[in-house]
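Appendix B, Record 12. Input sequence as logged:
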Amino acid sequence: MDEQSSSRIALVRTLACKYREAMNAKVIVMPKAAVLDPQGNAVRDAMRHLGMPEVRSVRIGKYMEIDVEGQSGDLESRLRRLCRDLLSNPVIEDYVLRKAPASAKATARHEEVSRFGKATARQSANSQLQKSKRRKRR
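Logged structural output:
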């Protein structure tokens, strides 16, 4: 294991074990505007093929929720370092870090999970459609 990986693991362990008060951090990682997004282009093309010619572009990213115990003064800077060094590739991706108190977490998580579940179901259906089209071409 290289030195950078071991420092990342140590940082994650520190965040997970050191603190006792709860906080929820939400991280959204997206490709930079200047970077091509082939997965987003494939989804855009599938959406157009399925009757949505109005769709101009799609960008595919990552969404993460991190539960952290504790609220020290340097917690946000360490979370930002974690986002930069582990969760995103700063050369081609940007990230947004949003912190929320643990009390607001349950309500927000329920809303996001229901929205995420619907989007995932649509993506799964589109993926199945693309697979069946590939099989027919062969």
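Residues 3-103 form a domain with the Mth169; Chain: A , fold (CATH 3.30.1280.10).
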